[in-house]
Design brief:
Helix content: over 70%
Order of helices and strands: HHHHHHHHH
Number of strands: 0
Largest sheet: none
Length: 165
């Protein structure tokens, strides 16, 4: 069954249709959340919360074609909230972890990624981890394809510059 038809059925309360939509988008949601948060357990939690909220309010979705953009926006909000929780933590890293080069490099990439604007983070994670093309990302985010391409390119340039500094 086609995604648009599933969205319409799910909007009318069809649980099986929503389940099918979930199966088709779960991996992309998880990959995006994992990269934005860097923690598999938190990524799973955020995806679960996103899916629960989406299920509860899919009947209010006005345009079936906007489903992916809509659910990724919900995910982005959930990830932002979770990231704010991270900033409030005061835990120290164990010394043995802080000394490992690969760990430090991973932390540096995540920190640089976190400094990018929210939309740039979303575009990069959809492209890199979701494997989406610029045209698909543009449709999901209701943006012009050329805008997505240029934002992606600038974000990668900014990321590279931050990592060199």
């Amino acid at each position: 069954m086609e995604e648009l038809e599933l969205v319409k059925k799910a909007g009318m309360g069809d649980v099986d249709a929503f389940t099918e939509l979930y199966r088709g988008i779960y991996k992309d949601l998880y990959r995006t959340a994992f990269y934005m948060l860097g923690n598999p357990h938190d990524a799973e939690d955020v995806v679960s919360e996103t899916v629960m909220d989406a299920f509860a309010s899919i009947g209010q979705l006005r345009e079936a074609g906007a489903f992916r953009a809509w659910i990724f926006r919900i995910l982005a909000v959930k990830c932002s909230r979770k990231r704010r929780e991270y900033l409030k933590r005061t835990e120290e890293l164990p010394e043995d972890l802080a000394e490992k080069n690969s760990f430090v490099e991973d932390v540096m990439v995540r920190q640089a990624f976190a400094k990018l604007p929210k939309e740039d983070r979303m575009i990069l994670s959809l492209h890199v981890f979701g494997g989406y093309k610029s045209s698909e990302i543009a449709a999901m985010l209701s943006r012009n394809e050329n805008t997505v391409r240029s934002k992606k390119s600038r974000a990668l340039t900014k990321l590279a510059a931050m990592l060199k500094a």
